[in-house]
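Notes continue from the previous slide.

Worked example: a multi-chain complex. Inputs as given:
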Amino acid sequence: MTPWPPLLALLIVVPLTGAVITPVVGRTRAVRSADWSLGVMLATSVIALVLVVQVARVGPFSYVVGGWVAPYGIELRFDEFGAVIAVICLLGTLAMVFSRRYAAQAMAEQRIPYYYALLLLNLTGMIGFAVTGDLFNLFVFMEILSLSGYALVAVSGEKIAEMAAFKYLVMGAISSLVILLAIGILYALTGSLNMADVTGRLAGAPAAPLAVAFGALTLGFMVKAAAFPLHIWLPDAHAIAPSPVSAILSGLVVKVGIIGMLRVYQIAYGSGAVDMRALNHVLMWLGALSIVMGAFFAVFQDDIKMMLAYSTISNIGYIIMGLGLASSYGMIGASVHVFNHAIIKATLFLGAGALIFQTGKRTLTDLAGVGHAMPWTVAAISVGAISIVGIPPTAGFVCKWYIALGAVQAGHPFFAFALVFGALFIFIYYIRMVNAFYFRQPRDPAILEVTEAPASMLVPVLILASLCLIMGVMGSLPLSFIEPAVQRLLLPLGGG
Amino acid sequence: METEATRSLLPLAAFLLPLAGAVLTLPLRKISARVRDITLLALTALCASVAVWLAAHVAGGEVYETYLLQLTPDIWMYLRVDALGALFGATVAVLWMLALVYSWGYMAEGHRLGRYYSFFMLSLAWTMGVAYSGNLLTFLIFYELFSILTYPLVVHEQTPEAMAAGTKYIIYILVGGSLVLLAIVLTYFAAGDQTLTTGGILSADIGQQRLFAIFWCYIAGFGVKAALVPLHGWVPDAHPAAPAPFSAVLSGVMVAAGSFGIMRVLFQVFGVELLREMGVMSMVTILAGFTVLFAAVLAVNQDNLKRRLAYSTISQMAYVVLGVSLLGSDSTIGAIIHVTNHAFMKGGLFLCAGLFIRRLGVHRVSQLDGAAKRMPVTAAGFAIAALGMIGTPPLSGFVSKWYLGLGMLETGNPLLLVVLLGGALLAAIYLLPIVYRMYFREPVLTADDKVTTEGREAPASMLVPLVIVTLLTIALGLGASLPGMPVSLARMAAETFFH
């Protein structure tokens, strides 16, 4: 049975049509496109909310497009991992609100409708990616979000922006090709593209092509997730993009690689035909390396957005490590960090965006003393910083705790050590940031005259900052929500 | 202790009252500074009364608990007031209240007072949380919060020295915190998140190697905060850099929080029997004994008064760890009451140091000549606290050292008396010359002092806290054997550890 089937389809149709219509709506007056896309996101959020409540009550469900039953037709499948759409919608909505003032300053007016259209398209791609039950559509949605992502990086029109976008495009295209290759192999082996169907038919498939397929999928998704050393496209792209876009890219788009990996695991563990142990081992090390190296590079940055971009690499490292550990604690921690990191990183990027918008400065040296001029924004950034480092009881801590437990559970206490001390590294550069904002003498006294950000920027930042705290204090809610999905996933391994 | 715990909201109140103060600081300033000061005092006074009330009732055999929040599907944030926590909580709240009153005078011309008072109250809230934590994760949460959110107080002056001290502080503290986190992760995995009650929650079944790893992670992690040599590097820098009232609580109770953590972990996570089986405590004894003497020797050489006091704190706090490490009930009683006694004595000394800075502009011991003539009350307070620190009867410092000494004999370590007495002797060497200078040397006058050599005594709002801590030092010594005094609570705690 598929309860409320149209909703799952509408979840994609609404933002997709909305995106296509946006440039038309904004043709005469650009600001209308902002209202329109905000409305579209709000509608999508309502649908998402209903679906998430539904999956919490009854578990996973699916919808077959046009009534063509799987494996022949297109299947949309919604499970607990798919609940990431809630945070996609949340960040999407807040980014739309934030963009109202930001876009007006950052780009030419005739570009604004296209900016919103691209943003909506990007969000649609992610939503589709999260709920599709079909490998080919997975690829299609991935391309929708990647292509719109490349364009969004370039949208500000700065000189370096084109270069950054190009670098992002090259790496993105290569990873997409690798993933497409893997999907092709799986199709050749099983004759099906439906994920559930593929899972069922993989048993007995020859080992060599399988290894290539899963290796390629992992490689491709790790590039998308920007695991070290496959991260080279990320820092520039995330730092140069307009701040609301950075929030979406860093908070959500890199998670596509993670959600992709979760789908890969569902197929691999579900079919029992693939031995993921070697790959998992690679992932653990990749995660540990990403944590440490991301933090290491971040320490040397003076540009605040550059620093945040490197911090994303560290945090993706947590998640990748959690996945690689393949223990229930680690998986739960990693899955929840997909949500929590999105919220935290969006707080930081939007907060940084507000600072840059008000002061016109973007390096720590120039921003010294800004905490006294923009107390609310900087307080929100500080909350974000505390959460991302994983100080209890904020959102970041829950995941750090679970992934560290997962490392011990999997019999690799060394990784718990790497995780905890990697987080320490991360703290060092956030303490630099807090020092600059509050305790250092301003380089230019004019910064003390700056006023607080306008409400359309401040309110989203404050909402996100309070979520950083709420998600920590109410940590058991997301944890117990995701737990059944992880138990199901790890069941073939003997319950994890 | 197998007493049935009473559900009560009071532990929560002790934590929420200062938290409310922290939140209200900024809006209240908009009305007037006076309203803010009075409100904050009222809130801390309430908090202190709650803490003292809890301590009195715990001494009467009650145990209180509060379930706060469900953090993860299997862990609650949980407060539980037992004898050890009740005593520490009461000490914290009372000292903090006094330091707050003192701050009015000390910080009068300071900058960013809103931030100062706000974080001052926040730190109190978190420290109360540390005292009343009922399980390891709750403990970790409050411990980390108060370690990290005191950073703004350490760097409050924003001078280059303060910033450097702050960086040092935060790095030390974070490394320590990470080790504690790691230890708690390992503990949780081995034993689950059990309430900290009695006997210990770990068992020898988890393997010798893992047990040792957990043990040393805890000792090293809390050792940073408790300033065990060689993990003490942040203490001598952070104290001179911080404002005096904050130095008082930093030295008085925050360093002690590390020792408190060690006690919680040793007695309630490992348990005495397991520790004896592991046979590791002698190493901790050596470490602590070395710290007592080493830091005291370093203190003798310091000319900066607050720095000298900071080294004294390192030395005195090592007494606590030393007492605990012997695993004897008398030495444990001595360790527990020394936390309280030291808090008021060292708090008093730092309050005096702050007064010398504010009223005389003097930071260094060598400039204190003749200070007693100009600030008689302050000098008297300093002298009494100094004598207490050395362990002169009948002051409170004597009581704790008496029990520590008894414990050393009880556990068959008479040689350690050398450490105990050596530390006391060194304390005399680094504290008494200051007293001598204040009373028996002629003041050296600087240019603006020429007119008068007298009349520099501090305003009442700064003297009252000093007088109260001094009286407490005397009272805790004279009345040590009365019921309801720290000794009785410490004895209760020790009985549960060594049943």
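Summary box: Chain A has 21 helices and two strands. Residues 285-496 of chain A form one domain.
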